[in-house]
Amino acid sequence: MTQHATSIHGSIVAIITPMYEDGSVDWDGLKKLVEWHIEQGTNSIVAVGTTGEASTLSMDEHAKVIAEMVRIADKRIPIIAGTGANSTTEAIELTQEAKEIGADAALLVTPYYNKPTQEGLYQHYKKIAGSVDIPQILYNVPGRTGVDMLNDTVIRLSQIDNIVGIKDATGNVARGTELIQNLRSQDMVVFSGDDATAWKLIMAGARGNISVTANVAPNAMSQICAAALAGNQSLTEQLNTQVAQLHEILFCESNPIPVKWALHEMGKTTSGIRLPLTPLAEQFRAPLREALKATGII
């Protein structure tokens, strides 16, 4: 296990993949975003996850985006590659590629649409872990995948050496807390994947937050995670209140539609997004702009 993988903590941005209006990747914009995150105190970056539009990138683009982030970061912060798929074989290929590129860890979403059983989920992740020797973080987001990996399955998987964490994007703090308390392996940690409740899960023992909000408020999210990890509840709540409006409005349409529009509004990126996702609907633009102003981002 790499030193970077074991030290992953705090504010972890699930970064967008910036694109031009024709949908092509904006490589210069990508470099600027990574440098900005490092400067703003982001602790780690997830490349080509849900927010990075992994589902519409080609296999070649997928590898190139990860490779470019690894190159730019140059070991200053860990790069976690999104390598999940609903085909176990494809997930193994993507994870192997991420390892060869030099990613510090892989983030693997539960297989979506084909609805495997809990035993199927266990065998899926066990096969990937046994096939590729890279630290692996499970990712449970039932609201997007139609599949819910139960705590008992996660606990079984925690016994596999290179499965080092889980991104819990259920938003269910009680369930996440129960998982933290029941994990027998000290080598596996929990990350929140729900910005609105992340601070509560960190206070309960999670290691950090894999965040959408951090795309637009990297410094604020870094401070919230640091305060929560330090156990300072009053400061954590105070800091979180300042960006709570963003946690809500950045999901007014499917992620990453709102966050990509916000970054363009901030002058950070070009405006492209790939079909079947479309630019943010007109009725949400003024409220999102107001939220960015209210939090001092623009």
TrEMBL record:
GO terms for cellular component: cytosol. Pathway: Amino-acid biosynthesis; L-lysine biosynthesis via DAP pathway; (S)-tetrahydrodipicolinate from L-aspartate: step 3/4. The record marks T50, Y113 as: Part of a proton relay during catalysis. The active site is at Y139 (proton donor/acceptor), K167 (schiff-base intermediate with substrate). It comes from the Bacteria. The keyword NAD does not apply. Homotetramer; dimer of dimers. This is 4-hydroxy-tetrahydrodipicolinate synthase. It comes from Acinetobacter qingfengensis. The lineage of its organism: Bacteria, Pseudomonadati, Pseudomonadota, Gammaproteobacteria, Moraxellales. The gene is dapA.
